[in-house]
Amino acid sequence: MKKKWGIERYLTIVTILAVFGLWFGLTATGAFSETIIPSPASVWESFLDVAKDGYKGHTLLEHLGTSLERLVIAYLLVVVTAVPLGLLSGYNSKIRAILEPIVEFYRPLPPLAYYTILVLWMGIDESSKLALLYLAGFAPVYINCVSGVIRIKEDYINGAKTLGASKKQIFFYVIFPAALTDVFTGLRTALGVEYTTLVSAEMVAATAGMGWLVLDASNYLRSDVVFMGVIIMGITGVLLDRIIRFVEHKVVHWKGRT
Amino acid sequence: MSDTWKEKLYEPSDELIAVQNVNYEGQEPIIEGEELISINNVDLSYTGKTGPIKALENINFNIFPKEFICVLGPSGCGKSTLLKILAGFISPTAGSVKLDGEEIHGTDWHRGVVFQHPPLYEWFSVRTNVAFGPKMRGVPKEEYEPLVEEYLKKVNLTEFADKKIYELSGGMKQRVSIARALINDPEILLMDEPFGALDALTRESVQDLTRKIWWDTGKTIFFITHDVEEALLLASRIIVLSKHPGRVIEDIQVNFSRQIVEDLVTDIKFSPEFYKYREKLLRLINSQE
Q1: pLDDT, average across residues B223-241
Q2: B107 contacts on A by Cβ (under 8 Å)
Q3: pLDDT score for A3
Q4: Disulfide: which of A197, A231, B93, B99 matches A136 by Cβ 3.0-4.6 Å?
Q5: Residue of B106, B165, B184 lying closest to A163 (CB–CB)
Q6: Domain spans of chain A?
């Protein structure tokens, strides 16, 4: 992929600058209190302050690290379980018949609805948070893997059969790679869903984490810290998505070219 | 390999105009010797909205080694269905298909298939796609690697061996697909309208290639097409199916393909004989519409 600096890129940059300009302008007029819209300067100050001295016992990096650790652990669990189970469910209708109703039932539920149950079962510390993130990420990966396998053209499989491939070989050499584009769609969706669920997970009995930082700061009307936290979460989210997209581009090099 | 089969394939006929209706009931072999595949009383019906629909009815013919059979018919005559039965993707509702005297069940690599839209694996290079069959069958690497080169050369793709599939043109993809099927040395190569989606020039070159491979290797080929000219340019025998349900309504031997490849006749398309055959077959097919 070649980097092209078309008109679109300039439009994007202008939009970002315009949002910043609006932010500067609105706060400079003094029409809004610092609690409603903190000025960029105070947000920047709180960033430097939290980065250096921390917020309630933890530095910014520690807050971010705690959140990312939860995210990454839950995410890796999703990758190693939802991908194989999803692919198998797509390949074998009996496995699908067992798993799909469960996933279909809990998938539309708001995570907070079942988080209370998870807390009751697993306690209030890390494990329930990880379980919540795991469940949030499992469904999109599973569903995309299933549809990825189901969408595979019959001739791909028939072709492999006429060339002498066994069922197992078909799964590993044909089904798995053919479904990879959908697997990655699921993985990207899952990352987004987990990231948004993170704040919910850190609402209960957490003492660190970006979600907790934002919620705690809002309790004390520290809008500057809230804004700072939200911006950092936004940037981190974009970076994480970029990483997945980079990996996808390397692995599924044929995507969009067939 | 003895080349006597090539002589046996065609009896010179003075009466090219009177297309002979060689028996398709399978009682007298067209070429002496054992049949490779025998299709006996094959029916195929599937369930439609208003009850069962018959796609194929009472199909009876034998396929002999080294024949190049083209099956012609109007669209919807079930010719692809017949190929799917031979490949083992579907089972006939009634009747049987035997390969070397044994009834076929499901697919296996003795019956290679070339699909209309080549299902090549984009995640593998051209070379790995061609090597797929032997690799899956557990043929040792040092054995199949020279084979891969050989078959890439047969389809003139040696320079493209390390390309990605998406870098190939439609004609090249179909050539990879042919090499991939042939490397397994199947007893029969089943081709399902393989060149239907190609432009005229590309089609001509892959037709030439297919004819050459058939002549050089003596492979039995079963080829589905709706293009009368294509059938005449390639086949050693043409079978015509009727529409709804598909029944064999014509079964003839032709020798234009041999004339092109052996006597190096060019422009055979413009010969009066070719014209007469084409008209006869076209009229037969159009009468089905």
Answers
A1: 91
A2: 158, 161-162
A3: 58
A4: A197
A5: B184
A6: 1-32, 38-251
Identify the pLDDT of residue B124. Answer: 92
Specify the 3-state DSSP secondary structure of B215. helix
Amino acid at B173: K
A155 to chain B: which residues are within 8 Å by CB? 115, 117, 119
Size of interface A-B (CB pairs under 8 A): 67
What pLDDT, on a 0 to 100 scale, did the predictor assign at position B30?
46
pLDDT band at B173, cuts 50/70/90? very high
Highest mean pLDDT among B13-27, B80-94, B247-261: B80-94
Of A25, A42, A90, A64, the C-alpha closest to A222 is A42
Q: What is the pLDDT of residue B108?
A: 87
The DSSP secondary-structure symbol of A55 reads B
Please give the average per-residue pLDDT across B174-181, as a whole number.
Answer: 92
Q: At CA B214, angle to CA B212 and CA B220, rounded to 5?
A: 170
| DSSP code, position A174 | I
pTM of the model: 0.80
How confident is the model at residue B202, as a pLDDT? Answer: 87
Least-confidence region, from A102-106, B12-16, B53-57, B115-119: B12-16
How close does chain B come to A143, measured CA to CA in Å? 22
Closest CA to B210 of B171, B266, B165: B171
Q: Name the residue facing B109 among A155, A163, A178 (closest C-beta).
A: A163
Residues in chain B with CB shorter than 8 Å from the CB of A163 are 109, 112, 132-133, 136, 180-181, 184
The CATH code belonging to domain A38-251 is 1.10.3720.10
Q: Which of A161, A169, A253 sits opposite B107 (nearest CB)?
A: A161
Partner-chain residue, chosen from B111, B117, B133, that has the shortest CB–CB distance to A155? B117
Rounded to the nearest angstrom, the minimum Cα separation between A87 and chain B is: 17
Q: For chain A, which residues score pLDDT lower than 70?
A: 1-4, 258
Q: Which residue has the tokens 């190096």?
A: B264
Tokens of B266: 């060019």
Helix (H, G, I), strand (E, B) or coil at A222: coil
Give CA–CA dist A192/A182, Å, rounded: 16
Q: Angle at Cα A162 formed by Cα B190 and Cα A175, nearest 5°?
A: 130
pLDDT computed for residue B120 by the predictor: 92
Residues of A in contact with B176 (CB under 8 A): none
A164–B108 CB contact, under 8 Å: yes
Q: Determine whether the interchain pair B87/A158 forms a contact, defined as Cβ–Cβ distance below 8 Å.
A: yes
Is the pLDDT score of B289 beyond 70?
Answer: no
